[in-house]
Write a structure and sequence with these properties.
Elements: E1 12-21, E2 29-37, E3 40-49, H1 53-59, E4 66-68, E5 72-76, E6 80-88, E7 92-99, E8 104-110, H2 115-125
Antiparallel strand pairs: 1-2, 2-3, 3-4, 3-5, 6-7, 7-8
Length: 127
């Protein structure tokens, strides 16, 4: 799938694989990629995992625990107040994107360091 969601004049600066949703193996989650451009913050969903996906996969072969998702979220920089790295537990690191409306969105990087994504987001917010 191409990046048909890019606006005219919009250029990608960086992208990172992440997931949103619960942190445990029995929690529902959505995997995907965040894309930071010169204009917006994007989340492009990839796979949706049902709650209890791990047990569904091992116990019932006919149940689909994974479902492809083509959902897409675009947040203009003008709606973002800032971002910060949040450490959850021993290994899990997340990027918290704080919206001016008061909402906070968490994008989990697992054990990977989200610092480069935060730096790219902050650079975009300063423009």
């Amino acid at each position: 799938m191409g990046k048909d969601w890019l606006q005219p004049g919009e250029e990608e600066i960086g992208s990172w694989s992440v997931y949103i949703g619960g942190q445990g193996p029995m929690d529902a989650k959505v995997t995907g990629k965040i894309h930071i451009t010169n204009l917006n913050f994007h989340f492009a969903a990839g796979l949706s995992l049902e709650k209890n996906a791990a047990s569904l996969m091992t116990n019932y072969q006919h149940i689909k625990a994974f479902e492809k998702s083509e959902e897409h979220l675009t947040i203009p920089f003008s709606e973002i107040a800032g971002g910060e790295i949040v450490k959850k537990g021993f290994l899990l690191k997340s990027l918290a994107v704080k919206l001016k409306a008061g909402e906070e969105l968490l994008f989990h990087f697992g054990a990977m360091n989200p610092q480069k994504a935060l730096d790219t987001l902050n650079a975009g917010l300063k423009k």
